[in-house]
Input
Amino acid sequence: MESSQTPLQFSMDFSGDNPLVSRLRNGEFFLLIECNTSPLEQPLEASLTLARSVARKISDVPEVVGMAVTDRLRTEDTHDPVETAARLAEASGKPPVVYLSGKGSSEERIREILARARSEGIRSIVAVTGDRSEKHTATGRSGGRVPPYPAGYLDSVDILRLASASGDGLCLGAGVNPFKYNPSDQYLQYFKMMRKLDAGSEFLVTHAGWDMKKLQELQWYLQMRDVGNPVIARLALLSLDDIARIHDGLHPGVHVARSFAAVLQRESNVNATQSLSAQLHRLGLQVAGCRLLGYNGVQIAGLRDGHHLDMVLMRINEALETYDAFDTWVNAWNDYHNFLSFEPISDAYYVFDGLLNGETVRFDPEQCHLTDRSLPEPAVGDRALHAVLSTLLGEGWPEVIGESLAGAVERVCGVPRDHLRECFFLSPSACPKRLIHGACGGSQPDGTCEFGQARCFFQRVMALAAHSHELDSLEEGPKGDG
Output
């Protein structure tokens, strides 16, 4: 049975008193505590026992503005995020942030959740496309095209547009993954980020990661583009189980360098207490660094219970009091890690030179120089396909002929003409999630799709856009894109 059919028993109107919105707009640094919606196989009341202990603790902690409740993070069959959020809000007295995932979602599901959120007075929403569904299997043939997933993936851009059009006065957020390590993947993230802002996102939340150079890179990119939207950094504490399987990958789009993974495993090999102590110290340093880099707040994932929260808050407060100068913080970060590299691949790409040099915090065009942003040339076949289809779907034909040609192209390609235009006349059926507005954040460090079949489809799209001198369209969409 769908958990959404369970009647909600709460009605807490936070619309006039939302500390998240207030702090976002006033530029005051804050903390969010992340809670994952539990699988349907676990009774909701039992699964919320530990989360409620955290929620009750934060009621008296002014710097924690609320709890962020994820949606379908690891499995598609989870309890309703609105019901989970409402129960935690009742315990904390603070308005939650609810994530909406496009994994296995339809527009109807999103509208339904938005309506329930409105009835509970929940106004802060973060749209994400979602990682690969555990119900979506690949072909099993090397290099074969991944079949479509019947339930599909609703792009975060479309979720934002639906939420914006609802007229509910929502405060909307969206994800961005700065932890990409080749030019194509990183610029795809930043271009789609701009499209999300254009679709109604007021603030951004990063993927989790430990590479502080990448967190500074995102700030510099936004400052270079004169984008002043608030950004929240998502930071994570890892369990011993997480660390034990770290080389198998934590989560799509969350990358851990081998050298850093070895450090985490050495810490955990001593005992659980030592592992937690080291992670808490690192987390405190990260939070202090994020504040100095210009992040408006941090969202902390991986908390287990109220006692755990006490230790986290103590370490964060110590770090925030200790590090109020960027150069001092950079030295402390590097010293603690013995100048460890957080790059998950060799020859890792960064958009700017001079990141984390201890001297320049904010973007300065005189000092913050772009690195080589050369992109691969499009394949000959892609160029030929672009040339043919752009001609057939062009606007120079008489109306009757143009409609006839467009209909023929749609039948052959099995894709609407507007979707082809969005993807520079490449078929989005080559993307396992069938996305059209841009890449998701789940690709692997070398640029391979999270499904493992090939490099991200949108790298091909970007190569054509660069070749056609139309990179701006990856932010804005083609003419007529609403």
Summary: The two ends are 36 Å apart (CA to CA). The beta strands are 30-35, 64-69, 97-101, 124-128, 171-176, 203-206, 231-236, 297-301.
